[in-house]
Automatic annotation (TrEMBL):
Alphabetical UniProt keywords: DNA-binding, Repressor, Transcription, Transcription regulation
Domain HTH lacI-type residue range list: 2-56
PROSITE patterns linked to this entry: HTH_LACI_1, HTH_LACI_2
Entry keyword annotation includes Transcription regulation: yes
Protein name, entry field: LacI family transcriptional regulator
UniProt superkingdom: Bacteria
Gene3D superfamilies: 3.40.50.2300, lambda repressor-like DNA-binding domains
One Gene Ontology molecular-function label: DNA-binding transcription factor activity
InterPro entries, alphabetized: HTH_LacI, LacI/GalR-like_sensor, Lambda_DNA-bd_dom_sf, Peripla_BP_I
Length: 325
């Protein structure tokens, strides 16, 4: 395997000059730079990235921890983050916690050993104190951990309000709200707050159904929706806090002979691509996925550069009405 000394010998320059070319430090003539790159190419020389990161005190690596990479929302989030990270010269280390605290803790330790420049947290199974003690540049999604750690979320309250008020305006008189576990203390619970405010103001009958702590276990959604519809056959509106749950609600309504939207109207959340794959297409609340990716990278880069950042970062949402309402 070729070494930096081999590159220097072939290029006819010093090892120091090769190092300066690799790290883009100091003035190097284009002729010298070309000689070094030609030698590297001919020798198939691969620089030691860890050593280089130690030298320049920056790895150009960002960590992203999400609960389930197969979930449409987090798959799209990861894709947008990777896109904007690449635009800024960063690579992403993607970690799939599967809502397992031990895995999440192990991934955090791995990212710190890898000397990543910052971590984006989309999985939050650990105690808040553990995040506060990370001593790493950090951005969290949909969870406010402390006053000095930046978080990124959409306007969850407005999203819940738009969804619920649409169902009420369509004449729904008994609305089921299917949400994640409220024990997780997430900012997304503001959707539930808005739901309660809207139905109580309108005097509409309602029920709230929480999924289990593992809100990404899609196989359990069918049984959950089946139980809800059997126990409450007079439900005429469903507000689900993800498009995946809304799709299962649609499927279960059709299976039991309920017309959508004739008998039951359904609103989802996120506007993942799958919302348009079902029939009828899902009415949903669109989260700004592109904005999430752009802002997550921007907030970390500002911290890396030592710039002050806003700790509260909330993006707008949009109601997208389709066939289920």
């Amino acid at each position: 395997m070729a070494t930096i000394h081999d590159v220097a010998l072939m290029a006819g320059v010093s090892v120091t000059t090769v190092s300066r070319v690799l790290n883009n430090r100091g003035y190097i003539s284009e002729t010298t730079r070309s000689k070094v790159y030609d030698a590297m190419s001919e020798l198939n020389y691969q620089p030691n990235e860890l050593a280089r990161s130690l030298l320049r005190k920056q790895s150009n690596l960002l960590g992203l921890i999400i609960p389930d990479v197969s979930h449409p929302f987090f798959a799209k989030l990861a894709e947008r983050i990777e896109y904007y990270a690449d635009q800024k010269g960063y690579k992403i280390l993607l970690c799939n916690s599967q809502m397992n605290p031990a895995k999440e803790r192990d991934y955090i330790d791995m990212l710190k050993r890898s000397r990543v420049d910052g971590i984006m947290m989309g999985s939050h199974t650990l105690d808040i104190g553990e995040y506060r003690n990370l001593h790493s540049r950090l951005v969290t999604f949909d969870r406010k951990i402390s006053e000095d750690i930046p978080y990124l979320s959409s306007d969850n309250y407005r999203g819940g309000k738009l969804a619920t008020e649409l169902l009420i305006s369509k004449g729904c008189r008994k609305i089921a709200h299917i949400c994640g576990s409220l024990e997780l203390d997430m900012l997304s619970q503001r959707r539930t707050d808005a739901f309660l405010d809207a139905v109580r103001k309108a005097g509409v009958e309602y029920l709230i159904v929480q999924t289990e702590m593992n809100v990404f276990d899609e196989e359990r959604y069918r049984g959950l929706l089946q139980s809800v519809l059997e126990a409450h056959p007079d439900i005429d509106g469903i507000f689900a806090t993800s498009d995946v749950i809304a799709a299962y609600a649609l499927k279960e309504c059709i299976r039991t002979g309920r017309g959508v939207p004739a008998d039951v109207r359904i609103v989802g959340y996120d506007d993942v691509s799958a919302a348009r794959w079902v029939t009828p297409e899902l009415t949903t609340i669109r989260q700004p996925m592109d904005g999430f990716g752009r802002e997550a990278v921007r907030l970390l880069q500002m911290q890396i550069e030592g710039q002050p950042v806003s700790n509260q970062n909330e993006l707008s949402v949009e109601l997208v009405e389709r066939g289920t309402t």
